[in-house]
Write a structure and sequence with these properties.
alpha/beta; 2 domains; 46% helix; 10% strand; elongated
Length: 106
């Protein structure tokens, strides 16, 4: 692989949305197929779940990223975000790191 091809971002997309494709092309990114080496994958939630499924054994390379976390809904839904913050707070309290103390020190 040449230095030029290593510096060019190669992308995949599950969607044929003009706004996404135009943005990638304006950046000089090059479309590729799933069988090719790729750097960025604009994937559907279903694809991300498939990629990170334990049974597939697929691992991203250091130069590969996706547009979703495997559990992105845990971060984007307010009810689940609150649940996770409460769980994190309890874990800190068990370790003796009280959040209130950290806030009061500021």
């Amino acid at each position: 692989m040449s230095a030029q091809s290593r510096s060019t971002v190669r992308y995949l997309s599950d969607f044929d949305k003009t706004v996404i494709m135009n943005n990638f092309e304006k950046r000089g990114w090059v479309s590729c197929d799933l069988e090719d080496d790729w750097n960025f994958y604009w994937a559907s939630v279903h694809t991300v779940r498939s990629i990170f499924n334990v049974e597939t054994g697929f691992r991203l390379n250091d130069d590969q990223i996706l547009n979703h976390f495997p559990n992105h809904y845990e971060l984007t839904r307010k009810d689940l975000m609150v649940k996770n913050i409460k769980r994190y707070r309890k874990a800190l309290e068990r370790e003796g790191n009280l959040i209130e103390e950290a806030v009061e020190e500021k």
